[in-house]
Amino acid sequence: MRILVLNPNTTASMTARIGAAARAAAAAGTEIVAVNPAMGPASIEGFYDEALCLPGVIEEAVRHERAGTDGAGIDGTVLACFDDTGVDAVRTVASGPVVGICEAALRSAAVLGTRISVVTTLSRSVPAIEMLTRRYGFADRCRVRATDIPVLALEDPASGATDRLRAEIAAAIADDGADAVVLGCAGMTDLASRLGHEFGLPVVDGVAAAVKLVEGLVSLGLRTSKRGAYAPPLAKAYAGELARFAPGSAPGLAS
Amino acid sequence: MRILVLNPNTTASMTARIGAAARAAAAAGTEIVAVNPAMGPASIEGFYDEALCLPGVIEEAVRHERAGTDGAGIDGTVLACFDDTGVDAVRTVASGPVVGICEAALRSAAVLGTRISVVTTLSRSVPAIEMLTRRYGFADRCRVRATDIPVLALEDPASGATDRLRAEIAAAIADDGADAVVLGCAGMTDLASRLGHEFGLPVVDGVAAAVKLVEGLVSLGLRTSKRGAYAPPLAKAYAGELARFAPGSAPGLAS
Amino acid sequence: MRILVLNPNTTASMTARIGAAARAAAAAGTEIVAVNPAMGPASIEGFYDEALCLPGVIEEAVRHERAGTDGAGIDGTVLACFDDTGVDAVRTVASGPVVGICEAALRSAAVLGTRISVVTTLSRSVPAIEMLTRRYGFADRCRVRATDIPVLALEDPASGATDRLRAEIAAAIADDGADAVVLGCAGMTDLASRLGHEFGLPVVDGVAAAVKLVEGLVSLGLRTSKRGAYAPPLAKAYAGELARFAPGSAPGLAS
Amino acid sequence: MRILVLNPNTTASMTARIGAAARAAAAAGTEIVAVNPAMGPASIEGFYDEALCLPGVIEEAVRHERAGTDGAGIDGTVLACFDDTGVDAVRTVASGPVVGICEAALRSAAVLGTRISVVTTLSRSVPAIEMLTRRYGFADRCRVRATDIPVLALEDPASGATDRLRAEIAAAIADDGADAVVLGCAGMTDLASRLGHEFGLPVVDGVAAAVKLVEGLVSLGLRTSKRGAYAPPLAKAYAGELARFAPGSAPGLAS
Amino acid sequence: MRILVLNPNTTASMTARIGAAARAAAAAGTEIVAVNPAMGPASIEGFYDEALCLPGVIEEAVRHERAGTDGAGIDGTVLACFDDTGVDAVRTVASGPVVGICEAALRSAAVLGTRISVVTTLSRSVPAIEMLTRRYGFADRCRVRATDIPVLALEDPASGATDRLRAEIAAAIADDGADAVVLGCAGMTDLASRLGHEFGLPVVDGVAAAVKLVEGLVSLGLRTSKRGAYAPPLAKAYAGELARFAPGSAPGLAS
Amino acid sequence: MRILVLNPNTTASMTARIGAAARAAAAAGTEIVAVNPAMGPASIEGFYDEALCLPGVIEEAVRHERAGTDGAGIDGTVLACFDDTGVDAVRTVASGPVVGICEAALRSAAVLGTRISVVTTLSRSVPAIEMLTRRYGFADRCRVRATDIPVLALEDPASGATDRLRAEIAAAIADDGADAVVLGCAGMTDLASRLGHEFGLPVVDGVAAAVKLVEGLVSLGLRTSKRGAYAPPLAKAYAGELARFAPGSAPGLAS
Known about the structure:
The structure is a homohexamer of 255-residue chains.
Chain A: E1 2-6, H1 12-25, E2 31-35, E3 40-41, H2 47-52, H3 54-67, E4 76-79, H4 87-93, E5 98-100, H5 101-109, E6 116-120, H6 126-135, E7 142-146, H7 161-176, E8 180-184, H8 192-199, E9 203-205, H9 206-219, E10 238-239
Parallel strand pairs in A: 1-2, 1-4, 4-5, 6-7, 6-8, 8-9
Helix pairs in contact in A: 1-9, 5-9
């Protein structure tokens, strides 16, 4: 099985870390293809970055999907940004399952505890994540907290990021009654297990959770539905710089 | 006052029709700047098109926002696609209010009737619109129906589109108990008033509703909040084709 | 265009202040008819006052509606009490749109920020406003706070009311993560703009928001639906002191 | 124990029927005081009538509450209109429990079945009742159906009303999967038991349910809370015809 | 009338206290049959105990139901554990109404105040009670607090339990704005009235509330619906120790 | 890895079929231990059977959990009944993850489509499953349909069960707009893949989905939280037949 782990930002060092985490989570027979777009933001920190990573994300998703017609394609996709940006669009071009790491983490934590606290980076991301918790049906058992650590600072051991995470987890337990914690950023992958042991409760990393969810669905032969909103894009013209994205054009991107 | 009416697709004839409808709705002192992106899909028919219209949409929004520093800028923005795609991203680069036509239409219908039926074009768009009705707080009083008219067919008088709209409105009244109707497509603008008279209930067009909502907010001096999720994008590098979108770069797009 | 701004309480000085605020918000061609009932409570501070202002409110609404048959009627109505009391009843006798200031303020704030805090006067009013936030679909993004300023004290500059408002707004930002604020009382009208500048976020006054919402709907020809719950009252006898309110009687109030 | 059963309309024949039903439901030691206001609508058929019954309703509630200071007062109140109009206002002037028949019927049906269908009279009342089902927490297990029988026609045996009720109950079972039915009108009181036997499921009449609920709360010494929104009205002036309703005035209505 | 008050745990002293409280609440003509199962946990403190009390609870419910065929049966049932465990299962074997004390307490408090705080014993029980508040439709107006008093400590006057209850009620009023309180444990029965007077708001005990609710329903002839999910168990084989529970077997438990 | 697949009913032939399905779904290194309780109902068809399967279910869960202290224990548990009965109780005695097949199926379908229809056996089970869809956060995108096939008839090829399933799936697509289907019974396991191909959309079987979900969580080292409601049962006495279930007793069942 081959799973595309698509880091929506263009920071290769983060892609490498995410890829390593995905590989650590993956089963023996699973090949992780960790990529990031060629174009777009170096990190996703709010709605503007979310929107502008999409062409690059879709381009990667389609490129790897198409490779599949040669017998070497991907079987499923992980979108490795906690805002789950682009997940609906990628589902329209993917045949296999497509999972965002926020949704995967919440659906995993849901069966391990009763009250879930998400600990994310920036305060400005909290409303977007709250919209996701409502969309996914977790509004009444999930709180979102921010550490105000910049996303890329998580790569810097001297940033004190881990201690700020610890402080928020402690507050989630004391003040929110959390019995399960979700790390709300793709860059926090390698901390989940360590923090879980420290605090004595499940700490879920979305990248790992999403890899396992996709592995499971793929191995059951379950694929993205093509009957409704995730049907392939309708053929039409695309103008300007993005013309190559036009669906249905013969040598087009998303035939 | 100058309002940017941003048709997210690249079909100029539709932009013209939307602009005309916006002008018909606008107050005497309001200038409507109806534009569409230079790049992107010819119509928005599902999540794929929604995602790929965003760079063009943002580019237009920023271009007109910036013009404002010269004293000729825009005061507010209407996003003229019923999926309200990009509304959160555009809010981060706009100082004035930014309104999607789905939200504007629902918030207008909300004070005119008790049960709202949205009549849109394609069945595949229904789940996306239902997500919006839930996000905007209308889940318990709003139903979404599709006519399965292609978006661009609305421009063709021979397509029978109006009669199919009539049939769905009649069904909404009979089966859903609707006492207010929202036309779920920017291309249906000029039909709202006619159908309202025919059926004897409010039929709301989102473009007109959004123009009035933006006019109102602008005239009160109310602007998009910059304290939370709609704060300006953080400065960072953007890679590849989209590098010019990098926020904060000196001559950059979204300084 | 003529808009009836109906202050449900009988305090003429407050009606004057509300009228002035409405006029400040209104477009050039809009005439504001600011009135209050001849009978009823001097202020609306809870469910009892809410109920007993209704005959006077309806009487004013009908009186001005009827004037319309002579060519000098009103085109729409603002109910200028934050409890939105009587809004459903007035819709049954009005042909134009009828908007309460709580609903108008929330629907305006909804497009400017992500988390809304309402700051109202009395603690005893909080549950009633929370019921409105749920009815209008804002339960998951809106908190209600009270300053415990009596309504009429807002007219007294020596009451310290503004400083108590400031303290609650500061708390809403710090504790609730508010990025938009709604002033939950018709008597706070003239403070919104000043406080918005002080705190650097949108502060919405319901009277102004409602005037703009009604102006917009009227100019689009949108009227209260007469197909469902807002159909005209059925003809019937009314007993006793209120007999003149009987709908449908020839010289009756609400024919 | 003495329970005030307050029919909000002014039709004495309906008050008599409601009183008889209440007495049939009451325990041996319970005295039912069935009254209707001296002023107001002959029937409650929509928001207009709902609003205009309130002064009369409050007047009766206060008059009987005050009698209590002489040792002959009431212990609790049933508001016998399915729209539960005035229930919040009456709670502010009552010391005992105050229950509307819609709320009582739904809370009773809630423990007898899993899916509740309300069968009411006029289609125009459906949205108001749906608002109540949402307020009371029943949105996800309750449907509202209308027979389009005028309220007063229920008093006329030749009107065919019962057969139309039967048809709607049959449809509720077949189409909604209802396993409990609520009769959505105070005028349907005497039919509940008969229809329950015919259809083999619980058919709840709100008047009877409310009498039992009030009896139970009174006998436990439970009274309306005076700490929050149901605290007594604040003293203030009332203008005009309704001046006698001013709270706190020495010989006033609601001291 | 004969009401079965079924304490799901096997601690006879608690059954006696619950029985006394039920008798204190019951009407003159009501016989309270207070029982506990012969088998199962000494107290219910979490999901494990909840599950394992069920066979004993059902056995008692069926035994007393059957006695009814001899003319001495029960007319309704109170399940006297605040987790309302087994309420759905008992409804399938009961003909009369079956009420859990959590549901009864919430539905009583619902008409007395606007914001309800439940004060229960163990923190570990809070999520289970929150699930119930959501099921019963109280999610938006109810908070759950724990005193961390062990259930059986409530029987020990030296445990300081009452003072800890007082502290939580005070916090509920100050921090949650509670205007009604529910005691979240069957063992707190005799404190409700005393605490209600101390704090000046309704304090509801579930046992008393449930007795009155069942009395009311029984006296109206309302019984558990047998049309849907509460229909009698289908006949089938039961294996092993529990074989005697097989429904439909001739001398079986739940024929 | 060793996963306990616990069929809550006592029908060994169904356990064998479920075990086979679980093995077909399991990864190479996963051992499936398919068991059923020694005591309890032959099938789970409603709340009564749900309750009475629990002692046997818990006994099996504890027995296999304990075996783990000898190095041969289980790593996670699937509860193979679509009512997810006992899932909370088993979580208190399990250290690994515990997943019900309804929750697993819904969480899998959630990422494959937008509107999910559950097709289950008996109409009487629909309300219980609807409660689960609400608990799990799927109320707004999930409908439940019944075929009225008895559970054990699924074992009989001559019963016509498959054709009735087909008819309901066709209706779900046509009438509910379903783009993903969940088979609402553990006995439908082997049909999912075949029906998925026939109808061209994902058809999810809960047993397979739950095996993959547990495999994934176990391989990430994620376990049931022991900080909140799923903490181990508190030590206490258990009376009568079930005394061996007393937690904490030295040779006890759930130490």
